[in-house]
Amino acid sequence: MKWSCLFTIEQDLDLDERAGFEVGGVRIGGKEPIIIAGPCTVESEEQTMSVARAVKAAGVRILRGGAFKPRTSPYSFQGLGEEGLRILKTARDETGLLVQTEVMDTSQIDLVCKYADILQVGTRNMMNYSLLKALGKVGFPVMLKRGFMATVEELLLAAEYITKGGNEQLFVCERGIRSFDDSTRFTLDLTAVPLIKKMSSLPIIIDPSHATGRADLIIPMSLAGLAAGADGVMVEVHPYPKKAMCDGLQSLSLDMFEEFMGKVRSMISFLASQKREE
Ligand code: PEP
Ligand code: MN
């Protein structure tokens, strides 16, 4: 099948052709994989600042955190909304970290753009075509998550709604798909990483937190994702995972995050040394 503009399955893109793009001094899709880390949900200034400081101290440049949360149950905590965005801005101002947060609806775009550096489209909104079209018109970087029931082709076509509108500051995220196996929350489709690199020039990162739903599986899957060629990893971190209002089981504690960073750094250096030898 032929893809209309950016994507062509026949075209085996050379790695050197991938320049990626820059957001506030951070290159996404360049030579060095990026790490995005932060709480699932902004719960309070204290919680967010404690994660932001740890993330910053570890050398990470992008803080994640949800203010508008797409929850499966309408009875679950829905996020702090604009108050959460203000807290993220405080963290941004104090640490210099870039902030990535979710936008769930076209009506939230202007508001979220006032506070964030990168807009996130969640798995449940990958097929919200009015949102995708509107994001094609904003001058803001976007991270589009793969729908958990979406094929790679559907993800790339969803991405194309954004790029076709004129916004090429886009990267995608493999966050796990639903399979017959419920041993883990979702199934991290690592094949999608090298496959998408063959099919498109879009940077692709992985999110092992939502994919596995288990903090103890995040380090091995992150290393595997990087080895598969991912342009980055996004993880959830919480100062007290047991007390988290959302996704505590998959959140790394601050100690686990330190271990994660050590191992991820070693993998990144190893992969860079392999590339130099090629
Ligand atoms: C998130 O990353 O905050 C999130 C809600 O993830 P997903 O959309 O993949 O469920
Ligand atoms: Mn989460």
Descriptive key words:
single chain, 278 residues, alpha/beta, 8-stranded parallel beta sheet, two-stranded antiparallel ribbon, 9 helices, disordered N terminus, binds phosphoenolpyruvate, binds manganese (II) ion
In a few lines, what is going on in this structure?
The chain has helices at 45-57, 82-95, 109-115, 129-135, 152-164, 192-199, 208-212, 218-227, 254-277; strands spanning 21-23, 26-28, 34-38, 62-64, 98-102, 118-121, 142-145, 170-174, 204-206, 232-236.
Mind explaining what this structure looks like?
This protein is α/β, with parallel strands linked by helices and 278 residues long. Helices cover 36% and strands 14% of the residues. The protein has 9 helices and 10 strands. It has helices at residues 45-57, 82-95, 109-115, 129-135, 152-164, 192-199, 208-212, 218-227, 254-277, and strands at residues 21-23, 26-28, 34-38, 62-64, 98-102, 118-121, 142-145, 170-174, 204-206, 232-236. An 8-stranded parallel beta sheet has the order 9-8-7-6-5-4-3-10. Helix 1 (45-57) runs parallel beside helix 2 and helix 4 packs across helix 5. The protein is globular. The relative contact order is 0.15. Residues 1-5 have low confidence and may be disordered. Residues 40, 210, 236, 246-247 line the site of manganese (II) ion.
Write the layout of secondary structure elements.
Blueprint: E1 21-23, E2 26-28, E3 34-38, H1 45-57, E4 62-64, H2 82-95, E5 98-102, H3 109-115, E6 118-121, H4 129-135, E7 142-145, H5 152-164, E8 170-174, H6 192-199, E9 204-206, H7 208-212, H8 218-227, E10 232-236, H9 254-277
Parallel strand pairs: 3-4, 3-10, 4-5, 5-6, 6-7, 7-8, 8-9
Antiparallel strand pairs: 1-2
Helix pairs in contact: 1-2, 4-5, 8-9
